[in-house]
Amino acid sequence: MIEFSNVSKRYENGTRALENVSLNIERGEFAFIVGSSGAGKSTLIKLMLREEKPTSGIIHVNGFNLNKIKRRQIPKFRRTLGVVFQDFRLIPYMTAYDNVAFALRVTNVSSKDIRRRVPYVLGLVGLASKARIVPDKLSGGEQQRVALARALVNNPDLIIADEPTGNIDPELSFEIVELLHEINKMGTTIVMVTHEHELVSHFNHRVITIENGTVVSDTPEYQEEAGDYL
Ligand SMILES: Nc1ncnc2c1ncn2[C@@H]1O[C@H](COP(=O)(O)OP(=O)(O)OP(=O)(O)O)[C@@H](O)[C@H]1O
Ligand SMILES: [Mg+2]
To answer: Does a structural domain hold residue 182?
Structure first.
């Protein structure tokens, strides 16, 4: 689903953010991306979203070759993904409902489908009763759940989240990751950048560690084997 082959990224000011990164994330996986500040995590995410282009190397995401994708195909590519950011990026004057519905309206989904789909995803994230409220009257965790509902509403195969719990309390962070965990169990691939070691160790998922622009460790999800407890 995501394939990086020998990807390097040097920014225009000369900063080498990624050096020769190769990795594969398969359909259905849940991968945490960890590493210290400045390690290159957000750069990796921006390359996945085609917000940045690699200096060298090849990137495939969700069936698109991001080296060859044409500018006019980029919106179509992005609609195949759900994206969640640390700072939520909700539209302040729109209700929770409209923030989520907006993601569908821009893709020409029928009003009938919008009226069916939006309440469904708001229910999934536990916000059915807050549909008519604007973001600044919601808590941080609730705002992040609206952002998650918006990422889910197009039914994407892949969700990419860069520190989705960076601006919320630890208890709410668990809730958000628990939700992502449930969504992953239903088949959606998840890539999540985080600083929070507690979150990573609480959930048994693949952990890719980036330091100084390279992958320094990659531990798969722990598979329980029959013999382990004998
Ligand atoms: N647009 C840019 N132009 C130049 N340098 C950049 C740019 N964006 C990031 N960098 C640099 O690239 C390196 C990697 O940055 P990146 O944002 O990928 O780190 P990160 O792992 O996400 O860090 P954090 O945990 O603090 O978010 C850093 O040295 C950073 O200063
Ligand atoms: Mg970052």
So the answer is: no
Spatial neighbors of 176 by CB under 8 A, at least 6 apart, are 141, 144, 145, 148, 164, 165, 168
Query: Residue 131 — pLDDT band, cuts 50, 70, 90?
Result: very high
pLDDT of residue 224: 63
Write out the DSSP string of 111-174.
HHHHHHHHHHHHHHTT-GGGTT--GGGS-HHHHHHHHHHHHHTT--SEEEEESTTTTS-HHHHH
| Ligand 1 pocket mutation, candidates 11, 44, 192, criterion most atoms within 8 A of CB | 11
Write down the pLDDT at residue 85.
Answer: 87
Does residue 109 lie in a domain region? yes
Rounded to the nearest angstrom, the distance between the alpha carbon of 219 and the centre of ligand 1 is 24
CA 32 to chain centre: 10
- Centre of ligand 2 from the C-alpha of residue 214, in Å: 15
Domain around 126: 90-155
Q: Which atom of ligand 1 is nearest to the CA of 195?
A: 25
For residue 83, how far is its CA from the centre of ligand 2 (angstroms)?
A: 14
Has residue 226 got a pLDDT over 60? no
Nearest ligand to the CA of 11 is 1
Question: Count of domains in the chain?
Answer: 1
Question: Would you place residue 227 in the very low, low, confident or very high pLDDT band (cuts 50, 70, 90)?
Answer: low
Assess if residue 24 is contained within a domain: no
